[in-house]
């Protein structure tokens, strides 16, 4: 209900860009107000002396009609100006001619309405005082009172009604189908955690093998919501504008992806239904490459910027992951460089392919308790994650977190060799089997260990443990390390100073991880830690509007084609004048540190926990 009121009625997402948002809002609100005039005009076609009971006689409604009809015309003119003069890049690939036709049609509907009302005022047929309708009243002076005006009144009402019914007939065949489906799509949009993927159910009882769903291979595999998504796309390009893959020159445009899928639904849907009715076999062509190329499917970093930007609740990430699921699990078709990662998650329980026995090496000299089977559970289990366990640069964040937790007197322990990859990279690659195996294994270990509260350093682990493991029986209180550290700071359990490692004047810009900020709304706590360690300065794109580091969606293990997302982000960070780029994710640490090295920008990439430890703890 909230989304329907805010996103549909309030046009919230569209109004995030005030100019184009107002243009759309004028047209949309105008049509809402003018809806009863369709009935009034249809009555008027039959009998010029009749109108809708009550409402047709209201002066205030005549005023509203005048004002909103004018606003629709202003909206149409402004939309044409944006499309024809400003020509923003987000419209690249949209059906522009069709949009022009639709705008002309809307202008015709509203103009005929105003002129019809004007001719009625001239003929004294208006059921309300003419003063209530100042625009129609002003236009009425164009008309006389004789036979010509009586004929004009008939022609105008017929023209108005014909414009409406032909528009309605055209609608289902055009991108403006969204007028009918968008509000429904928003209603059925996700209210579950944004970072959660819908699990494939391989083990559902009563489902025959040939009915199991392995992602989306052809039109018939799309869920009803995915088809509704495609019908609802307005081709506005807001998703494309927000997409880091598109911004860095990749083949992926989330808008063109949805349009490509819609073309397939329109082209193949009817054939598929006819064949099913006739009981004949029909194999629609595979969505990859009929709708999109392989490259498009693999360019996505699952950052969710497109989903957040979309005004009609289209869920692009679910589409892309479903396409990947089919390619990986049915066709074994995926970028070759990701193959070792999938193999290592399956066989070695971590994507680095390292021995699990080395997992707690970093913690040995810090004296961190490693939870053995049968040990009493700690107050908080510290879920270290594979990156911090095996990557030198990411490890510093884990060491700092452990030191801070110890300094604050938190009763914590790690699972060490019993912790294995959450399965996130395999899942985002499309290998649901490997993910579910990992999920079941970890849920079992956590259950046996009596764990109820977890703190995770990696936003990908955090998202999976908090939002996806409940689907597999794992229900825990899960915190990101920035949340717990901020709480300890607020509670006075981490006293300020005297750290001897922190530079006195540190200018810090904080990079929001997509899986922390956009998918899970953790925004304030990392900033509290940054503020405790130096002077914060924000990047142009921050908070929920952050720009990906380039590692999500298993891209940590894939070659990047075209421009580098991490370099684009590093340039943006350097433009703030900061000397330190704070991060709260081991993947971001690695990606942005690589970006600093390849661009030569003067920035130190440091986890917020390390910044805090340098500020508060003696070295
Ligand atoms: S999730 Fe991110 S990378 Fe993928 S299509 Fe959406 S905006 Fe682009
Ligand atoms: S998917 Fe959403 S944001 Fe993208 S073009 Fe379509 S309506 Fe606009």
Structure characterization notes:
With 619 residues, the protein is mainly α. 53% of the residues lie in helices and 5% in strands. It has 28 helices and eight strands. The chain has helices at residues 2-9, 18-46, 59-86, 96-122, 134-140, 147-170, 178-187, 224-232, 238-242, 244-247, 254-278, 287-290, 294-299, 305-309, 316-329, 339-348, 361-364, 386-390, 392-407, 424-429, 432-448, 459-468, 481-490, 514-518, 524-533, 565-574, 586-599, 608-616, and strands spanning 380-383, 412-413, 453-456, 477-480, 507-510, 535-536, 580-583, 604-607. The strands form two sheets. The protein has a four-stranded parallel beta sheet with strand order 2-1-3-4. Strands 6-5-7-8 form a four-stranded parallel beta sheet, with helices on both faces. Helix 27 links the parallel strand 7 and strand 8 (604-607). The longest helix has 29 residues, at 18-46. It is elongated and about 100 Å long. The protein starts with a helix and ends with a helix. 48% of the residues are buried. The mean pLDDT is 95. The structure holds iron/sulfur cluster (SF4) (2 copies). Residues 233-239, 254-255, 258, 309-310, 312, 314 line the site of one iron/sulfur cluster.
Question: Main traits of this protein?
Answer:
mainly alpha, 53% helix, 5% strand, binds iron/sulfur cluster
